Amino acid sequence: MLHPHQPQHVQLRNCSGLTHINAQGKAQMVDVAGKAHTTRTASAEATVLVGERLTALIAANELAKGDVLSVAQLAGIMGAKQTSLLIPLCHNIALSSVRVQATLLEQQHSVRLVATVRCSGQTGVEMEALTAVSVAALTVYDMCKAVSHDICIQNVRLLSKSGGKRDYQRQ
Fold first, then answer.
1. How does pLDDT run across 26-40, given as a tens digit for each residue?
2. Residue 117's beta-bridge partner residues?
3. Is residue 79 part of a domain?
4. Strand ranges inside the chain, DSSP E
5. In sequence order, what E strands does 28-165 have?
6. What is the pTM of this model?
7. What is the pLDDT of residues 98-138, one digit of tens each?
8. Residue 117: is it exposed, middle or buried by C-beta count within 10 angstroms (0-12/13-18/19+)?
9. 91 belongs to a structural domain
10. Does 10 have pLDDT greater than 70?
11. Is 14 or 150 the better-scoring residue by pLDDT?
12. What is the extent of the structural domain holding 72?
């Protein structure tokens, strides 16, 4: 019988199909050396519910920290470029394009963020697109929190990806 504090060295087979888990059940970075270089694109979105008062302040560009939509767009671009530093098993990818669109939806009292990321490489850019909209959403929150903490970030999700083994398009 093994002592409870003794390490157990058990060989596990990776039956799950998860590419980030090795035979011992430990996290690993995927080796993409054998994959073809293709143009890969991914888009993601997020929504930030800001409420009526903040919607009016954003529309009039009257927040103390400045132009919320422009700063969120820049933050999203910077976030996409830093993805491999934030997500432990992501590859450092040479991005060829990052576009972040921040739109104030006045009727819904929200900011809609959409990021589209592109590269030519051996692995996809969906994590970069998701990171871009997440950082942009957090930036909207940061710029608006002096007025209200009743801000909700929601629906952070992948919209589409293409160029890899499997394409995806959200219905």
1. 777 777 777 778 999
2. 42, 98
3. yes
4. 38-49, 95-105, 110-121, 152-162, 168-169
5. 38-49, 95-105, 110-121, 152-162
6. 0.84
7. 999 999 999 999 999 999 999 999 888 999 999 999 999 99
8. buried
9. yes
10. no
11. 150
12. 38-169
Q: Is residue 16 part of a domain?
A: no
Which residue is catalytic, options 31, 142, 150, 167? 142
Quick one: average pLDDT of 81-102?
Answer: 95
Neighbouring-strand partners of residue 115: 44, 100
Q: Is residue 31 annotated as a catalytic residue, yes or no?
A: no
Neighbours of 127 (CB within 10 A): 22
Task: Please tell me which residue, 63 or 27, carries the higher pLDDT value.
Answer: 63
Percent of the chain past pLDDT 70, that is, above it, reads 87
Q: Is residue 62 part of a domain?
A: yes
For residue 154, what is the domain's CATH number? 3.30.70.640
Cβ of 119: how many Cβ atoms within 10 Å? 22
C-alpha span between 43 and 29 (Å, rounded): 23
Q: How many domains does the chain have?
A: 1
Six-digit token string for 26: 């430990």
d(CA 163, CA 40): 4
What is the Cα–Cα distance from 119 to 105, expressed in whole angstroms? 30
